[in-house]
Design brief:
3-stranded parallel sheet; 6 helices; alpha/beta; 5 strands; 125 residues; single chain; two-stranded antiparallel sheet
Length: 125
């Protein structure tokens, strides 16, 4: 946040506790890393993200976006929800390319390697 906007003191004035229990639904978890980080960035900037975007990817402390499982199922769910843009780990490009055309129809796919690529794609430039 300091690199994006040195005047924004949101995280200096607020305490954030994000609890992700180990006993959660087995499919939930690490692949929500980029989504949780984007939600916090949206909150700090007091700006919503685009409503037609879905994203998935495990996020490291250095900002690298790691491969996830279940891209096909996540894309199908996103499509059913009216998503037009899906962000997924660059390491999953082969999975994206294997998806049938009817699953990807009307959806722009954006392979992401580093978190810093995400804000401009979701309306948080």
């Amino acid at each position: 946040m300091v690199r994006r906007d040195p005047t924004n003191q949101f995280f200096g004035r607020h305490i954030i506790h994000l609890h992700v229990p180990e006993g959660a639904t087995p499919k939930d978890g690490p692949s929500a890393g980029v989504t949780m980080a984007t939600a916090l960035l949206s909150l700090a900037l007091n700006r919503p993200i685009r409503p037609d975007v879905a994203m998935t990817g495990e996020l490291t402390l250095t900002g690298r976006v790691l491969k996830i499982g279940g891209l096909k199922e996540k894309t199908i769910a996103a499509r059913r929800s009216g998503v037009r843009r899906i962000l997924f780990p660059k390491a999953n490009v082969a999975d994206w390319e294997e998806l049938p055309a009817n699953v990807k129809e009307g959806i722009e796919g954006f392979p992401i390697e580093w978190y810093e690529q995400i804000p401009p794609l979701v309306g948080l430039e």
